[in-house]
Amino acid sequence: MSMAGVPGSTPGKDLSWVPMAAITYLAHTEGGTSIRALARKLGCHASTVSRQVRAFEALRDDHLVDEALRRLGPQVMSQPGAGSCLKETRMTMLPTPAETATTLTESRLNREALRVLRRLCEKGAVLAVASEMDKAVVVRETEAGQNRTAVVDRDVAEAMALKCWISCDTPGRVSRYAITSAGRSALGQLMARAENSAQGFAESQAAFLGQDAPLPEDDAAEGRRRLRHGIGESPLILLSRRRDRDGSRFLAPDLVRAGERLREDFEMGHLGDTPRTDWTDILTGKTQPAPVAPPAASAQAAQARVLGALRDLGPGLADVALRCCCFLEGLETTEKKLGWSARSGKIVLRIALQRLKRHYAELGDSAGLMG
């Protein structure tokens, strides 16, 4: 669709991700279009439009929603008559002077939301947003302490709040958002879409770190179930609850923190999009991960820390740390993929975490992470 007939309009910005109710709200409050006129354009009753407007007005108490609507307002209503082209307006907007290479599109929002909403499904996870920061972070309270598990751009966080996928009960200088029932439903749809669109799902799982043989059907089905249902807790958290024969925890809190540090840098470095088949060459130094777009010093530094830690671990230990800490693969699956005997993976993982803890201790402040 286009905005043909609107003076001064120029095709450019894809805002098809914006809820139609939000466009309706802005057309009324920013564009001055009456409720009845909007109802005629949308082919619904005026009371429906009125409810949508009241609902979004109430949502403006949410800091992220308010910021999103402020950002969208000038783009939606930047010329006379925009309210009369409501359906076209939703699809194509005017570029703004502040527009950057990280313009939020539906595909980018869905890709980022899939990553972030999965993290928010973990027990004790919230999205923390500070008014002065241009990033939001997913943090999770565990027995081992507080860990960051994902970093998300501010515009993505705003969009998720605007779509009611996340909500904040106690706003403040640092607001904490939790996933909503709508967010869980959206996550299910996004995961199903990712599963359906993924080509060669089973082959890509088997090819991770150089395994070329196709997975047995039961393994492929297990992977699909895991993708559909999401991840409630990481393998490290689950394993930390197990006890040795003397009653002590199999994984001490400091070992769990070391694994979460690796995972945090993995997320901050946007390494989740790196094809698993590339990791063999990455770990041996034959190739490098895809550069972050747009370039970000913090993301590049995080990538360097991940590669430094994995290369310090070496073959075997790096494999299990990458699988269990970063890709959140279960130990039984890891043992099967790597051809190890049953119940041997947890021993190797503990050794890897002990080496990882030493690695971070040697780095000291240069590790660049929370303790």
Write structural notes for this entry.
By secondary structure, this protein is α+β, with helices and mostly antiparallel strands. 52% of the residues lie in helices and 10% in strands. It is built from 17 helices and seven strands. It has helices spanning 20-29, 35-42, 46-59, 63-76, 86-91, 106-120, 154-162, 181-197, 201-206, 217-229, 235-240, 253-268, 279-283, 297-313, 317-326, 331-338, 345-363, and strands spanning 13-14, 92-93, 125-130, 135-142, 145-153, 166-168, 174-179. The strands form two sheets. It has a five-stranded antiparallel beta sheet with strand order 5-4-3-7-6. Strands 1-2 form a two-stranded antiparallel ribbon. A hairpin with a 4-residue loop joins strand 3 and strand 4. The radius of gyration is 23 Å and the shape is elongated. The N and C termini lie far apart (51 Å). Mean pLDDT is 76; it is low at 1-12, 79-85, 87-102 and 199-231.
Largest sheet, in brief, is:
5 strands, antiparallel
End-to-end span in angstroms?
51 Å
Count the beta strands.
7
Average per-residue pLDDT, rounded, comes to: 76
Give the CA-based shape: elongated
Give the % helix. 40-55%
Low-confidence stretches: 1-12, 79-85, 87-102, 199-231
- The helix-and-strand class reads alpha+beta
Order of helices and strands: EHHHHHEHEEEHEEHHHHHHHHHH
Helix count, per DSSP? Answer: 17
